[in-house]
Amino acid sequence: MIRLFVGIAIDAAVAARLAPLAAGIPGARWVAARNLHLTLRFIGEVDDGLAEDIHLALAAVESPGFALDLEGLGIFGGGKPHTLWAGVRSEPLLERLQGRVDAAVERTGCPPEPRKFTAHVTLARLGAGAAPRIPAYLAGNSLFRAGPMPVDHFVVREIAAAGDQAGAAAI
């Protein structure tokens, strides 16, 4: 069994703009620059046969390229924040690509994603001690902007015990 997700890797220039944000919250587990991405669809654990079907289905997904802009920061978890993220400016072509990826994955027999798609780049996982620092951190970084970043492909990332491997699909 392997764990899969489909995403857009963040390029080096945008990752460099995000790097200075990785400080100032005690207990935060910051995402390494090489692992920054925008998740189009989390798939989860699948067997090798289904993984092959998913790869084939995603290889058929077509979409024009577009530019991605990051803007602002936020958290998931409300009163018990667990994830710090950078927001993504609304982009109709991104929404359309995500819908096509989602439909392709569902055609392979995977269940629909129960959560509504919220375009973001996860920056850190937050521990219990982070909550008091969040308001000041968000206020101090509220004007964050990065991009535009050209997007012409997405990746299917396999998360295994030995580490990450990725396969790319052009759009």
Label this structure with key terms.
171 residues, alpha+beta, Cyclic Phosphodiesterase, Chain: A, globular
Q: Unreliable segments (pLDDT under 50, ≥5 consecutive)?
A: none
How many separate helices?
4
Write the CATH architecture name: Alpha-Beta Complex
Oligomeric form: single chain
Q: In which order are the strands of the major sheet placed?
A: 2-6-5-4-7
* Gap from first CA to last CA: 27 Å
How would you describe the overall organization of this protein?
The protein is α+β, with helices and mostly antiparallel strands and 171 residues long. It has a single domain (2-170), classed as Alpha-Beta Complex (Cyclic Phosphodiesterase, Chain: A). The protein is built from four helices and nine strands; from the N terminus they run βαββαββαβαβββ. The chain has helices at residues 12-18, 48-59, 92-107, 134-140; strands at 2-9, 29-30, 37-46, 66-76, 83-88, 120-125, 145-151, 153-160, 163-170. Strands 2-6-5-4-7 form a five-stranded antiparallel β-sheet, covered by helices on one side. A hairpin with a 2-residue loop joins β8 (153-160) and β9 (163-170). The protein is globular and about 45 Å long. The two termini are 27 Å apart. The relative contact order is 0.27. The model has no long low-confidence stretch (mean pLDDT 92).
